[in-house]
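Much of what follows relies on a compact textual record of a protein's fold. The record below shows the convention in full:
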Amino acid sequence: MSRPIIAILRGLQPAEAVNVGNALIDAGIDKIEVPLNSPDPLHSIEVLVKSIGDQALIGAGTVLTPEQAEAVSQVGGKLIVSPNYDAEVIGRSVALNMQSWPGVYTPTEAFAALKAGATGLKLFPGVTAGPAGLAALRPVLPTGALVYAVGGAGPENFGDWIKAGADGFGIGSALFKPGMSVAEIATQAKRIVSAYDEAIE
């Protein structure tokens, strides 16, 4: 089953992309972003697309310009995640048939991002908004608007976030840090998936 969890692989090296990607798929995580401030991120994205693109949604994080979105599209990426709201990035991503998940924090940003065509919203930084912040924002958002909590959301508090109205999560350092072995990443991925599955029961 596909879960609403985006793995954030900041610092991923192209040489390890296939093994890390396969470990995530095996654990049940099939949405992967490689932040553009990683080493040679477009190469990593291309490797992931070629190896597991038929099983997973692959793309980039920390996308700040329309040109960056275009570069991701050119290597086969289908997912654009940003730390901020930028109407041009959203528009270009959607025009290229990619999912667009901009970072928002306020109601103004959330509504602007949805108006610009965002696939869903990345509540960021989640650690400062907290579940209480999302619970206050959720009632005013349009029905069906998707909100993923990123930063400060993880296995220890999935339940609190889901009760507050989170539809999914972006998980970074709790899942992947440069230098971790594939076995460690696999273990963390399975733990995160198990915690999520328990939280939605």
In short: The mean pLDDT is 98. The helical segments are 17-27, 41-52, 66-74, 87-95, 107-115, 126-137, 158-164, 182-199. The radius of gyration is 16 Å. Residues 70 and 93 are 7 Å apart (CA to CA).
